């Protein structure tokens, strides 16, 4: 049971981080291969706030995410002002993430290359499930709001969006900030589950896994990347008994998905809560005749 809990917890943490990247990449059209850096910033900030400044865990978690969001402005403001897009922005985020990793690697106040040790294991299954649901709900509200529509407009045609009155710079910066906050909170949850933080945990491979979940799950979709992220976490563990063959099968699944579903698992389908509204409406309708009969 503990093994299954571990898969669910790690899957939930990665879903939170992937939701943040989905807002930036899937909806705003800005590819990033450096969001592991924001996870590292959030994780280390949460650990310092809790361990050294004695801030309550949940508050430290939120402040760690906010710190990662503020740090995103360091890379966001200059790149968006110089109108870097496409591969150029992706390379900039990669360089930023590597710089963060190297800085943490040489900052001995937080353990340096040896890592930040002595972190209590405060991340639990109920907490991760609750945070995942809240993250999905808030992300859904954002992408269906006017801000989300602005992000989609920017991803489709920046010039046309600007002519229609969309502030492209502010839209991109807001999207990057929110995505970094999500990744920062995920990094904090990750650190307090592993009870240890090391710069090597936040390499380019983790950023690539998050980006792969967005591409395979479907652009301009939240539920698709969420499902794909959990699958990408679970499949290597399920195939662990195959030892040498599991990574080959893992890569083969990628190829099959891209051949038969190039638009991603759910394409451009977005999650909605229509089924919940229908269920509640039918439930209330079923209850009214019973009340009338009782009277």
SSE layout and pairing:
Blueprint: H1 2-27, H2 36-51, H3 57-81, H4 86-105, H5 125-144, H6 146-156, H7 158-163, H8 168-194, H9 204-217, H10 223-238, H11 246-260, H12 274-294
Detailed description of the structure:
With 295 residues, this protein is mainly α. It has one domain: ABC transporter involved in vitamin B12 uptake, BtuC, CATH 1.10.3470. It contains twelve helices and no strands. It has helices at residues 2-27, 36-51, 57-81, 86-105, 125-144, 146-156, 158-163, 168-194, 204-217, 223-238, 246-260, 274-294. The radius of gyration is 21 Å and the shape is globular. The chain starts with a helix and ends with a helix. The mean pLDDT is 85.
Low-confidence stretches: none
Total strands: the figure is 0
Quaternary state of the chains? single chain
Helix count equals 12
The major β-sheet equals: none
The name of the CATH topology is ABC transporter involved in vitamin B12 uptake, BtuC
So, CATH architecture? Orthogonal Bundle
Globally, the shape reads globular
Structural category is mainly alpha
Number of domains: 1
Distance between the termini: 49 Å
Q: On the 0-100 scale, what is the average pLDDT?
A: 85
Computed over alpha carbons, the radius of gyration is 21 Å
Order of helices and strands: HHHHHHHHHHHH
